[in-house]
Design brief:
The complex is a heterodimer. By secondary structure, chain A is mostly helical. Chain A has 5 helices and no strands. Chain A is globular and about 30 Å long. Chain A starts with a helix and ends with a helix. Chain B has a 6-stranded mixed sheet with strand order 6-5-7-8-2-17, sandwiched between helices. A 5-stranded mixed sheet of chain B has the order 1-9-16-15-14, with helices on both faces. In chain B, strand 5, helix 3 and strand 6 form a beta-alpha-beta unit. Chain B starts with a strand and ends with a strand. Classes of the chains: A mainly alpha, B alpha/beta. The interface between A and B is medium-sized, with 15 and 21 residues.
């Protein structure tokens, strides 16, 4: 469920205001995107879903939904 | 898969030395105050020890070794094996091990050689020293492991500069019929050699004028080809993929679980990576010591430095079961299960 994924992101990233993030949100605009946040995202997806995503996956994704689709396809 | 056990070799003592000079990442003016806070919080490095120009890894190793030999009360004539493991040698030619052998006043009968490894160095080094002692019956040996990484990190590279600190260590081993066996699981994957690299200065890309040109590699990342390059995401994914299965396989092989170990001592890579591994291993926070905050990522020295700095009281007064994992540059990684039974362990020495 993408709602769960968004909840997990909101819990992990303090910059995110609860309720604001949508599946179609561009994650680079949603909060200050940087290399450390990319690592936090990778760690979150590994621990919560046991799925690995790499730099290419993030590069070619725009929205929260894009990322979540990659996660779902590897579950 | 290289899983094996070596009996009859006892870890007798560990010492660590770090440069006196301390640098705070709160003062890292190349990045914004917000980025500095993020480095401290997420990467987990607040302060780092930084060597003065001219100080080498071997200076720190020598200092740690002298103190350790004195505290052990060892006769130097009996030390017949010295292995130096580092990515920061004194010279391209010759090896550093011989220089330290002479400086310490060890006999000519001492076997001395270098191994070029980083974050996995201590774990690999124990396998080399213990197997050689076991085969040759050499009675006493020194494993000298450490790195000065700050000299080759570019100040204008936020992906490396605030991460690394300098430190070096000496670990002493002796033959002992009663020592508990040391268990190893060591692995390598050279296909990832470019993930952590200084591209120029070796024979593949011999040093040239171009080696000193600064180039941009991303926002806030400028470095030369004679400085350290680190692909954070690749290294991160490698560690999350390999470390936990490696450690679990070792435990399975020796019929143990994390509950059988008093402490889980990891290479101090960065806080986010280490905490993710810790959670995947399901090891309690209290059993996972850290030196990242005050020393940074000290490369090959990180595991023994963490033992000396954080577990000194425990390892000097009782039997302690350690599970340790080294992982990184190479790519090279491995775990060992080792018992430390009232070892000699002086406090971290300021150099």
């Amino acid at each position: 469920m993408i709602e769960d994924f968004i909840q997990k992101l909101e819990a992990e990233f303090e910059d995110l205001e609860p309720g604001k993030l949508k599946p179609e949100s561009n994650f680079r605009d949603a909060f200050e995107w940087n290399s450390i946040n990319a690592l936090i995202l990778i760690a979150l997806i590994k621990t919560e879903y046991n799925v690995s995503i790499n730099a290419d996956d993030i590069q070619k994704s725009k929205t929260i939904n894009d990322i979540f689709s990659i996660v779902k396809s590897r579950l | 898969m290289a899983i094996f056990s070596i009996p009859g070799v006892r870890l007798a003592g560990i010492a660590a030395a770090a440069p006196r000079k301390e640098v705070s990442n709160h003062d890292y003016k190349w990045v914004s105050v917000k980025d500095r806070e993020m480095i401290v919080k997420t990467v987990g490095v607040e302060k780092r020890r930084v060597a003065e120009p001219g100080t080498t890894t071997s200076d720190l190793c020598y200092t740690a070794a002298e103190k350790l030999i004195a505290d052990l009360g060892w006769d130097k004539k009996e030390i017949e094996l010295l292995i130096f493991i580092s990515q920061s040698r004194d010279y391209i030619i010759p090896s550093t091990a011989g220089i330290i052998q002479d400086r310490l006043g060890l006999p000519h009968s001492c076997v001395a050689y270098d191994i070029g490894l980083g974050c996995s160095g201590w774990v690999y080094g124990i396998s080399a020293i213990a197997s050689m002692m076991s085969a040759t019956r050499i009675k006493k040996a020194l494993l000298l492991v450490g790195d000065i990484s700050t000299l080759t990190a570019s100040y204008r590279d936020k992906s490396t500069y605030p991460l690394f600190g300098d430190a070096a260590t000496a670990t002493a081993f002796e033959l002992s019929d009663t020592a508990a066996p040391i268990h190893f699981n060591l692995e390598s994957d050279g296909s990832g050699f470019e993930a952590i690299i200084i591209p120029d200065g070796g024979l593949r890309n011999f040093i040239s004028k171009k080696s000193f040109d600064y180039k941009k590699h991303g926002t806030g990342i400028y470095r030369t080809r004679f400085q350290l390059a680190l692909n954070g995401i690749d290294v991160f994914n490698f560690a999350l993929r390999e470390v936990v299965p490696n450690a679990k396989k070792l435990m399975q092989e020796i019929s143990k679980t994390t509950a059988d170990f008093d402490y889980f001592v990891m290479h101090q890579a960065n806080l986010l990576m280490n905490e993710t591994i810790r959670k995947m291993m399901k090891v309690e926070k209290e059993k996972t010591p850290y030196t990242l905050r005050n020393f940074g990522n000290t490369s090959s020295a990180s595991i023994p430095l963490t033992i000396v700095s954080q577990l000194r009281e425990q390892v000097t007064t009782r039997k302690v079961q350690l599970l340790t994992c080294g992982f990184g540059v190479g790519l090279s990684w491995g775990s060992i299960a080792i018992e430390l039974d009232r070892v000699v362990c002086p406090e971290v020495i300021d150099y």
